[in-house]
Amino acid sequence: MERAVAAGGPPGTGDQYCGTSPGRYQYLMREGKAGAFCAEGVRLSRKGLHHEALFWFGQALRKDRTSIQALLGKGFALGKLGRYDEEIRICDRVLELDPRSVDAWLQKGFAFGKQGRFEDRIACCDQALEIDPNCAEAWNLKGHALGKLGKWDAELECCTNATILRPRYIGAWVNRGYALVQLKRYPEAISSFNHALRIYPDYCTAWINMGIAHALSGQHERAVACLERAESLCTVGSRILYWKGLSLSKRGMYREAIECLSRVIAEDPNHADAWVIMSNCHFMLGNLDESGRCFMVAYGIDKNDIRELVSRGITTMRQGNRREALECLSGVFGILLR
Description:
By secondary structure, this protein is mainly alpha-helical. Among the domains are: 1-83, no CATH class; 99-198, Serine Threonine Protein Phosphatase 5, Tetratricopeptide repeat (Alpha Horseshoe); 294-338. The chain has helices at 2-6, 22-31, 34-46, 50-63, 68-80, 84-97, 102-114, 118-131, 136-148, 152-165, 170-182, 186-199, 204-216, 220-233, 238-250, 254-267, 272-284, 288-318, 322-336. α5 packs parallel to α7 (102-114). The relative contact order is 0.04. Mean pLDDT is 88; it is low at 1-9.
């Protein structure tokens, strides 16, 4: 199926009308207009039908090989399917046609980020900002990449620029808040998440991050309230459960904390922090044997993590990557001081 779509052919007999109705399919094919093909691809991509969208973008490009809208649409669909190298090549083709295409630079940068190539993402954002210094999306995307590299002050500056340029930019408010959390500026972080929630009250990520900010600032009742709100909005994962368990334990609700943390461990048996908190909870309840067992599991995980971090730190130092080596050693000290 993917081979047929990539070549511009129909996705297959399972969907012979390529995501559209028989009548619409026949009409579009009869008219044979590149713009209409492209619009159909965009419509299907917005519905999450990316395989089908590729067919229509392929049809548009058969009519006009230089259609920037069709090329970017095809690249977007490929990226949504996890085919980032192909998306990057498409963006390069657009940039050959129009080196000042901000959309192409941003899309290419986004694909780089999905591959963990954050320096390359930043370079793409810088190109976009050279063309349009007021591009809020470029500032936010650059900020997110800087955060992934641990450059929290720089992320904060970029994301603040994005919120100034576009005050209702939810993603930028959340990324700004995340940078503030990393800088331990919790009241400002909470304010930033509240900005996002005033724009969209059901934004799960903002509730999770605000709950974490409250937990880190010692406001555990508020943390639990935020995390329970997040639970009502999205799939409950280990991140929500861990921070909820931590805050419940800080409030003396040890049984409830153990229930949360047990679910974290069921999903990720190597979550050492969850084992440590659960050990403390069992200790406070007088379950000394279970407390000791949990502690020993955490110790075993920590020992393996320390060994791996030290080994990686030595290797990266020998390779001349001093920054990554220092990050590894910081990780070791973080475990030892827990």
